[in-house]
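Renewal narrative, Specific Aim 1. Our central claim is that a sequence can be written position by position from structural information alone. The example that follows is taken directly from our test logs and has not been curated for this report. It begins with the structure tokens describing the chain, in the order in which they were read.
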């Protein structure tokens, strides 16, 4: 292949980077450079060539030393090219994943410098190859996106799909709950083959297959980024689940309260205050048995 030929010449110093760029993409060059950088840092075992030659002379009584032929040199470059190409295709087709555990959050950047905040017990997976032209990822859980303007940006979840060109929005996809909050620009959400346009300051919610649209989102980003979870008219079981997720604990409570509607919030930094926030409105009392188990009655 032509690009392999020019890559071999670049490795041997026969062509410069500018000439190589006429035959391969920026993403390919970037990947090849990473591989070259890693291989250059690999160390071979210590080997004393003079001592080895002397041993050969003693054993075979010969002192012939053959120079590396052009053919061997070509094979060596070709082998290096083959390693680089196979490594490139392995790296470029491999998925990149970010996963958070219970009571854990993380922030990272995508290849186009779009920023992602990933909430507790969530996962994002994507392919970095050709990212600038095919910006798509998979989300399980909850994440806030600040997307750099460019080609279409797609978030695929088990419950629905969200698409934008460049904006700020939050997506929740947990069990039967799907929610999209738009904080800037315009977001397009697809659910059950229907498309919903969500402008800034609006929220699209699906709970147990029932869709709801509201225009009361006045914040600049979701509260969970600032270590606080907020709820408006949500079944109590979702509140319990989120508190368990943020503190990595188990909460025992009367299942008859599971679908009781709750509006309020709790902090992620103080367990007792958080429990007070979700128990007092329902006239409940809590008991902390240990760091992992709480009872609400």
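The sequence written for that structure reads:
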């Amino acid at each position: 292949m032509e690009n392999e030929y020019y890559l071999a010449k670049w490795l041997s110093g026969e062509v410069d980077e500018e000439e190589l760029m006429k035959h391969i993409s920026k993403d390919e060059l970037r990947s090849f450079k990473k591989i070259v950088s890693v291989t250059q840092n690999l160390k071979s075992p210590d080997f004393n060539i003079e001592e080895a030659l002397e041993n050969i002379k003693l054993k075979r009584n010969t002192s012939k030393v053959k120079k590396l032929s052009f053919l061997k040199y070509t094979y060596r470059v070709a082998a290096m090219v083959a390693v680089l190409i196979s490594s490139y295709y392995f790296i470029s087709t491999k998925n990149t994943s970010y996963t958070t555990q219970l009571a854990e959050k993380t922030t990272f950047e995508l290849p186009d410098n779009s920023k992602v905040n990933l909430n507790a017990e969530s996962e994002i997976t994507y392919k970095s190859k050709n990212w600038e032209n095919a910006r798509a990822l998979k989300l399980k859980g909850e994440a806030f996106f600040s997307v750099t303007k460019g080609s279409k940006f797609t978030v695929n979840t088990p419950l629905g799909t969200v698409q934008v060109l460049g904006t700020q929005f939050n997506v929740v996809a947990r069990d039967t709950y799907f929610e999209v909050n738009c904080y800037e620009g315009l977001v397009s959400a697809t659910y059950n083959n229907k498309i919903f346009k969500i402008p800034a300051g609006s929220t699209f919610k699906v709970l147990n297959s029932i869709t709801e649209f509201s225009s009361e989102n006045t914040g600049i980003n979701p509260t969970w980024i600032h270590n606080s979870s907020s709820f408006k008219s949500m079944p109590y079981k979702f509140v319990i689940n989120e508190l368990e997720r943020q503190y990595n604990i188990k909460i025992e409570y009367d299942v008859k309260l599971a679908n009781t509607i709750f509006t309020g919030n709790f902090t992620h930094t103080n367990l007792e205050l958080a429990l007070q926030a979700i128990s007092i409105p329902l006239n409940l009392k809590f008991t902390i048995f240990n760091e992992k188990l709480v009872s609400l009655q």
